[in-house]
Amino acid sequence: MSVRAVNHGSQAYDRLRKATDTVPLALLLASIALQSSPAAAAQVSGAVSIFSDDRYRGASLSDGRPVAILDLDYDAPNGLYGALSGKIVATRHYGLRPLGLVLNAGYAWRQSSGISIDAGVVHSIYSEYSSRIASRSFTEAYVGATGKFVSGRVYISPDYIRRGVSSLSGEVEGHVPLADKLRLTGDVGLLVPLGGQSYRSQFDVRLGVVREFGPVSVQVAWTAVSPGNNIYSSAHYNRSALIVGITTAF
């Protein structure tokens, strides 16, 4: 491996490490609350996934390159929850490199009807190897509701992907069983940049199928985003793609 490649990896690691120092106070407080919950009654789960591309609201953050993702989830009986998602990308010239880190903390109110209402905050950090939001971090607060087959959330961010640009976004996603261990999934989203910028609002859509094989699931999904001068990039890029992935839960 070249010295240049090693230096790039070190720089990306340092930036991710420094960025975590700016995690919002709300996340830290939620983390403390989670740790104080009874460990015996809490649910801890995780998953390892490999995807052919990392798409966020229709835009590729990995330059169309494969990614590996580690997800860890903590669900306390009192409604508090937390999650961590770490990503690495197979870059074109430097091999495997850190792509991003996403931290999530919130509280869910579980209703007797089976619907769950939640609110929380997500803090996302991306390294220089991200194709759309290199070396950036941003925070979003959200409220949402989850049912048996459909869920939805509304997000707001005071400083989104472009510096000085706030945003309001919403998404609805759902799934429909097609057969035993086979289901159809999909979601649709709308992102509205705020603050008088020239970026247009954008729609994104995803439609896929998931097949489970015990703890392993294989999925194929088509995703697309509306054209125009969107907040991720004013340059042309692939606005639709077919994403293939495999996930192992533990």
Describe the structure.
This protein is mainly beta and 250 residues long. It has a single domain (3-249), classed as Porin. 12% of the residues lie in helices and 55% in strands. It has helices spanning 3-20, 25-35, and strands at residues 43-51, 55-56, 59-60, 67-75, 80-90, 96-110, 116-126, 136-146, 150-157, 166-179, 182-194, 202-213, 216-225, 240-249. The chain has a 12-stranded antiparallel beta barrel with strand order 1-4-5-6-7-8-9-10-11-12-13-14. The chain has a two-stranded antiparallel ribbon with strand order 2-3. Strand 8 (136-146) and strand 9 (150-157) form a beta hairpin. It is globular and about 45 Å long. It starts with a helix and ends with a strand.
Give a short overview.
Helices cover 12% and strands 55% of the residues. It has 250 residues and is mainly beta. The chain is globular.
Summarize the topology:
Elements: H1 3-20, H2 25-35, E1 43-51, E2 55-56, E3 59-60, E4 67-75, E5 80-90, E6 96-110, E7 116-126, E8 136-146, E9 150-157, E10 166-179, E11 182-194, E12 202-213, E13 216-225, E14 240-249
Antiparallel strand pairs: 1-4, 1-14, 2-3, 4-5, 5-6, 6-7, 7-8, 8-9, 9-10, 10-11, 11-12, 12-13, 13-14
